[in-house]
Amino acid sequence: MTTIKDGEFTATIYKLIKESHYNEAIHILNAQLQKHTKSRAALSLLGYCYYHIQDFSNAADCYEQLTQLHPEVEDYKLYYAQSLYKSGAFPEATKATFALDNSSNHTKMLKLQSCIKYCEEDYSAAKSLLEQLPQDDPDYIYNLGCLLYQDGKYEDACKKFMSALQVLGYVPALSYNVALCHYSLKNYDQALKHIGEIIDHGIRQHPELSVGMATEGIDVHSVGNTLVLQQTALIEAFNLKAAIDYQLKKLKEAQEALTDMPPRAEEELDPVTLHNQALVNMDTKPSEGFEKMAFLLQQASFPPVTFGNLLLLYCKHEYFDLAADVLAENAHLTYKFLSPYMYEFLDALLTCQTAPEEAFRKFDEMNAKLTEQLRKLSKQLQESRLARDDEAQKKTLAEYDLMHEKYIVVLMAQAKIYWNRENFQMVEKIFRKSMDVCNEYDTWKLNVAHVLFMQNKYQEANGLYESIVKKHYDNVEQCNIQECPCKCKPSILNVSAVVLANLCVSYIMTSQNEAAEELMRKIEKEEEQISYDDPDKKVFHLCIVNLVIGTLYCAKGNYDFGISRVIKSLEPYNKKLGTDTWFYAKRCFLSLLENMSKHMVMLRDAVVQECIQFLEHCEVYGREVPAMIEQPLEESPVHIGKNTVTYEARLVKALFYEVIGWNK
């Protein structure tokens, strides 16, 4: 710390505070306080600085000393109570508010007590205290909106927040609350409109917060958790934007929303940001995601969805023991954070591991309840249509879609019990039972198609696969107008590569080779368009389709054609060699080697030479490509040098040499 000249101490401190260099001011003030332990000026400024960097515990300590040293100053009592409230020490804050019970601070006391009760989830007490305020007070309107929101009355809450905005003018936190109401009502366009306003306002008013710079790859320092950052509501806005993008399955946009927010060090992140980071990056950084969620669960407060999300993610990655442990260790959180539907679903899912028949019965009971609710909602929907009540129709339709989503989830979990046993006839029977409820939904069609495909019922599978694929079929080069809506239709590459591959195989197995070739030309055309727009982007759809067809021929014993197809599908290697494509390719080669070692297959020398050359290419281009995706919580991870396509390609090549006798 640079030495401050005599007579410049006060000017230096106020300059640092004016420029928001609170940490430097705290450093100087703490040194001063060691010399003069009861300095009113030092304690007051120190409390102010701590409050502005949101270190509310230390701010409360400063103001507590000031209330004892100067009990006649009412403001110190108010700041002390506020700091305790902000630090989460609600019982102490409530006690501190009673010192404010005088004519000048009575209204402030009521407001603060109401906020404390709200945070303690004692909503009736919060409302009772709030009703003692004048009804034209903007804070009354604002806080009443919060209580209405908590009660699930999102439309009424939104009206209150809009009224407060008209009285107070533009306040980012209020605008965020309006956006949150629209989000809860699933009015995502309106929510995004208000989020956009908050972000634009924050960028204009506070360019020093470095919004969007981290996404651009610019190295920026943490802006810290300052009061200015809190007042802009930027963190909340970006988190809500990420939540909307995640709900709309726009994962890349959700990730960008989280990197666009003002940069902070990991230890400075709030629980909501930490939870959202874990969730949106779970596909690429699962170990980190699990670690963050488990950490949040150990804290005094965390986002309510954390508990359910952690359990579902453990189940998704098949860590059922861990999910059961978390559920058992946090039984007190079950009733608070899990809906009856979620608890019943998780209970049945965990029961699958030890008693699948019992789990099947539990899923059956759940589906019976959900079917009954769907029938009731369907009847309500018909009544609202007859009555031409658009509002009721819209509301009932949203409820029906939500209920149907729950039904599908339970149905798929139930069917998976028999799928895992490869009892595909039983899986088909389960799906057929739900036809009247699900036959218009793509998820159901897709899974029925998979089951039919596994039973070699290719003709029936064709119809279901086609109904999904055709929606994405005619969308390229329909016109030359750049802004034409037809350019925005979903691409065929949005369909899973395995679905396209299964459809091609079904065409081949039902002697519809022309249809298979047309579909492949379509995929190739769209991949070429993507390569033209973004030459470095890897697209694997056509490659996987060819790999699956090659695998089909290998399975039928035609290795000459099958292996050649597999090899050609991975060209060019720098764009087509990936973890998934290598997985399909090596299965064919290992099957070939097994049959060659048993002298069941003889290959021409030219094909053998082609295989060796292919594996050598894989060695060259596979150095940075993982051979398999490791489980996120693996206790003994694979050696980094062994988990590459290069390593496995060398192993397969060595096996080739051994089988054909080239190493002798």
Write structural notes for this entry.
With 664 residues, the chain is mostly helical. It has a domain at 9-212 and 221-245: Tetratricopeptide repeat domain (Serine Threonine Protein Phosphatase 5, Tetratricopeptide repeat, Alpha Horseshoe). The protein has helices at 9-18, 22-35, 40-52, 56-69, 74-86, 90-97, 106-119, 123-130, 138-150, 154-168, 172-184, 188-205, 227-232, 234-247, 251-260, 271-280, 286-297, 306-316, 320-329, 331-337, 340-351, 356-386, 390-420, 424-433, 435-438, 442-454, 458-469, 497-509, 513-533, 541-555, 559-569, 573-576, 579-597, 605-621, 645-660. The chain starts with 8 loop residues before the first helix and ends with a helix. One of its GO terms (molecular function) is intraciliary transport particle B binding. It comes from Cynoglossus semilaevis (Tongue sole). Belongs to the TTC30/dfy-1/fleer family. One of its GO terms (cellular component) is motile cilium.
Short description:
With 664 residues, the chain is mainly alpha-helical. 70% of the residues lie in helices and 0% in strands.
Write the layout of secondary structure elements.
Layout: H1 9-18, H2 22-35, H3 40-52, H4 56-69, H5 74-86, H6 90-97, H7 106-119, H8 123-130, H9 138-150, H10 154-168, H11 172-184, H12 188-205, H13 227-232, H14 234-247, H15 251-260, H16 271-280, H17 286-297, H18 306-316, H19 320-329, H20 331-337, H21 340-351, H22 356-386, H23 390-420, H24 424-433, H25 435-438, H26 442-454, H27 458-469, H28 497-509, H29 513-533, H30 541-555, H31 559-569, H32 573-576, H33 579-597, H34 605-621, H35 645-660
Helix pairs in contact: 1-2, 2-3, 3-4, 4-5, 5-6, 5-7, 6-7, 7-8, 8-9, 9-10, 10-11, 11-12, 11-14, 12-14, 14-15, 14-16, 15-16, 16-17, 17-18, 18-19, 18-21, 19-20, 21-22, 22-23, 23-24, 24-26, 26-27, 27-28, 28-29, 28-30, 30-31, 30-33, 31-33, 31-34, 33-35, 34-35
